[in-house]
Amino acid sequence: MNKEKAVVVFSGGQDSTTCLFWAKKRFKEVIAVSFDYNQKHKLELECAKDICKKYNVEHHILDLGLLNQLAPNSLTRVDIKVDKEAPKEGLPNSFVDGRNMLFLTFVAVFAKQRGINNIITGVSQSDFSGYPDCRDVFIKSLNVTLNLAMDYQFEIHTPLMWIDKAETWKLADDLGVLDIIKKETLTCYNGIKGDGCGECPACKLRMNGYIEYMKSKNE
């Protein structure tokens, strides 16, 4: 197994950018892969491109437009507004069916062609907003499936799986990239860089975690 190279599933948001710098500390060569699925917050692709260029990371954007066609939701349709609060029952309307499964599958194909075994993704079971494809059991299951499907030894790393947003900010701080994450990433579902719109669930989760971390840091 090649332990020197890794591919990061990269959106340009807080979690994936933290994972990118986590990977840069652990692997000699890191490649970032982003996906264009005609998402409403398409500015995240520009953000991802800028971060990779600035910090000297090889970057690829793969076309996954079919996902938009298959899974209408608030991230892919202008006429569907993002839920401001999590629903009492069912999944938030920002959940894109099959997204993480497809992202990781395509990244695995990409990685195998380059002789890379390590795949890194920023999913978290602690702050997963009810998304089933952010659970540890799904990642472990897909890891086995990808190994069997391609007869190849992948290892999917999930540095954020068991930590919450405050701890994710702490990890960024420990990596020396807190300001980069705060100012240069795009987490907002409405496509606003940095602190975002402050209204969507992603912005609220991000800001609440930041406040909690800074409070604990200054105690």
Described by the principal axes of the CA atoms, the overall outline is globular
Reading the helices and strands in chain order gives EHEHEHHEHEHHH
Total domains, how many?
1
Radius of gyration: 17 Å
Structural class: alpha/beta
The CATH superfamily label reads: HUPs
Count of runs of 4 or more consecutive helical residues: 8
Number of strands: 5
> What is the CATH third-level topology name?
Rossmann fold
Name of the CATH architecture: 3-Layer(aba) Sandwich
Low-confidence stretches: none
How far the N terminus sits from the C terminus, by CA atoms, comes to 44 Å
Widest beta sheet: strand line-up: 3-2-1-4-5
Q: Portion of residues in helices?
A: 40-55%
> What's the mean pLDDT score?
88
List the helices and strands and how they pair.
Layout lengths: L4 E5 L4 H13 L2 E8 L6 H12 L3 E6 L1 H6 L28 H15 L4 E3 L15 H15 L4 E3 L7 H10 L3 H7 L16 H18 L1
Parallel strand pairs: 1-2, 1-4, 2-3, 4-5
Helix pairs in contact: 1-6, 6-8
Enzyme class: ligase
Function: Catalyzes the ATP-dependent conversion of 7-carboxy-7-deazaguanine (CDG) to 7-cyano-7-deazaguanine (preQ(0)).
Cofactor: Zn(2+)
